[in-house]
Amino acid sequence: MLDEINTDCETKMQASTDHMLRDFKTLRTGKVTTSVLDNVKIDYYGTMTSLDQVGSVIATDATTIVVNPWEKNLIASIENAISKANVGATPNNDGEQIKLFFPAMTVEQRQESVKQMKGMGEHAKVSIRNDRKNANDKIKKLEKDKEITADESKTAQDAIQKITDKYSAKIEQILKDKEVEILKV
Fold this sequence. Notes:
The longest helix is centred in the C-terminal third of the chain and has 38 residues, at 107-144. With 185 residues, this protein is an alpha+beta fold. Helix 1 packs parallel to helix 4 and helix 3 packs antiparallel against helix 4 (150-183). The protein folds into two domains: 2-25 and 106-183, Ribosome-recycling factor (Topoisomerase I, Chain A, domain 4, Orthogonal Bundle); 34-101, Gyrase A, domain 2 (2-Layer Sandwich), CATH 3.30.1360.40. The chain has helices at residues 2-24, 75-85, 107-144, 150-183; strands at 41-44, 47-50, 55-61, 64-69, 91-93, 98-101.
């Protein structure tokens, strides 16, 4: 039973870390990536659909993204959705495709990206602390129901704390590495 709680807790903490890494893909670093458009959705025949489902999205170089819709009648909808998403570039529509030209990042923009990244990291840490609390509550309930002894409960809570410390340190290291990457000119 305790092993199951430990495994479940570690799985949830890994998921929190993975979620943070997915969120990082929406951040702009020195080189533009197509993931800055991941959260842009258009109304495709009544269904909100991501851009990569209605056309090709390609980063042609370090500062340019080209969106080439499969249906040309979607160009206006795509252009409108990108404008509303405020991704840091104005869409240029040539009737066939949409080009986004991203200017080089300023120091202030880099610092803003770092600030957003740290906020994402803090959300991940809060999630990990919640996972720890939930696991410890389950352990305390087992002790209260006399399914485990007080010593087993203490040992199990210590094990949960070690898992928490491991993932907190992992997140801190990821944040440091990402900060260096973003601030590097």
